[in-house]
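Example 3.2
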Amino acid sequence: MNGEIHQASSVRKTDSMALQAFTSPVVGPAGLIMEDRVHYLRAPVQRRVLPLPQQTTQKVAMLEASLSADTLILENILALGYDGLVIAGFGAGHVSQSWATVIEHIAERIPVIVATRTGSGSTAQASYGFHGGEMDLMRKGASMAGFLCPRKARVLLWLLLGCQRQHELSLYLKSESRIQN
């Protein structure tokens, strides 16, 4: 796009109307097109391809953590029939203490992924232990998205659920938790 080659795992639309609306935060483009020739900046990485989903009726909610947000929607995710939940968390993947309490109960029944809402960077794994920090959320059963943005985490979870392969979620997120060079 616009003379740049981006890997699907890292590219994001970062501007609503700019010519260079697509970027790959943290890692940059994988290659460039100059004078009608392709110039790769790094070798391609092995990717895992999911089969087409066997079902498409699975429902995955995506909610964004915000200051003073109540838990009403969270408390009703299961009753509303959702099969998975993605949270766009603060900073490196954090939520309020009240959200963390509800997420624990949800994660007992359906997969929960916590991503960062910042637009760049990764969720943490072992930096913050406060109630609602990533270490607390992982103990409560949530998975951290790594470098996957909330929208890509939602697509991944939707596909895994549609293939009845949600038990493989940690394998996919583990490969996304580090920068692909």
